[in-house]
């Protein structure tokens, strides 16, 4: 096992005594005894990042909440339909950070860039104050639309737009889901309206809290728009904002809600039908499925990946976890939220796959938990690190 450690002692004042980045041959995710561990591990074509906190998680939460900047933070996990040209994706990320003259936008950082070659999809984690997020996101979208033609996209992950998804999540105590929804779909200059104004020919559908008053979830809106079809019929789509979808821009989903994580489990088979049966059993909509979990089964790097969107649920945990591990919890506007832990997803996939004689190759939390996202953003902003994904040991997934 090849290990490399990168220590950052100056994280102490932010509730993280140091960061440990570990390159390992097998991905690991550990939350044991109320202590949050995190590592960056390499598995196939993925990099996975975790953080390490030697204090109880309540201590980390209390310390993170002390920052006045942190209280107003929001995150946007910008999904763009390109990963094989990494320099292009980084150009999009930098557009969120700097204006046209190269001046840095205050209160904004890019924590991470996830590139997946097989999916040909990247996720750019932009964190900013609620006052700064709109301009950062719209500038990145403008650049992406200028550089990416969704009509030429070739990847196993479904997509409909050059900028495929713009979800906005609250991180700080002084920001509610309603505030994020207003940024996403409110009157000009909201993100949805601003995108269609700045880039003529773009169009958008709304989901989550931005889809007022119905608040339809992302999975439902994607089904309505034909997102899951191999070749979506753009002419049959009626967008919520903007003109009829057309190439090269396609259709963009814009939404808001409590934080959504991504947890992927790779099973040791090339049979996508096996993966689909596991995905069906995991989904929230299936009796006995996991609450808040939406799932796709996709061919990936010679295996099958069970790709899960893990939505945050209002209230406390609704079920047990392996070894009695706690459900990760946080609050928005004083209301408690929690989400299914990655360990439970991994255990359930292993159980379902094992019934069909298939093993599990690895499990990964893609990106960050809400606590990690908030804590790392406070570190980046306090030290004025805009391109955090590069400055901290070239963190990348």
From TrEMBL:
Domain of life from the UniProt record: Eukaryota
The record, for InterPro entries, names: Formiminotransferase_C_sf (IPR037070), Formiminotransferase_N (IPR012886), Formiminotransferase_N_sf (IPR037064), FormiminoTrfase_cat_dom_sf (IPR022384), FTCD (IPR051623)
Residues in domain Formiminotransferase N-terminal subdomain? 72-258
One Pfam entry name: FTCD_N
Query: GO terms for molecular function, please?
Result: folic acid binding; transferase activity
Q: Where are the transmembrane segments?
A: none
Cited SMART domains: FTCD_N (SM01222)
Q: What is this protein called?
A: Formiminotransferase N-terminal subdomain domain-containing protein
Q: What is the lineage of its organism?
A: Eukaryota, Metazoa, Chordata, Craniata, Vertebrata
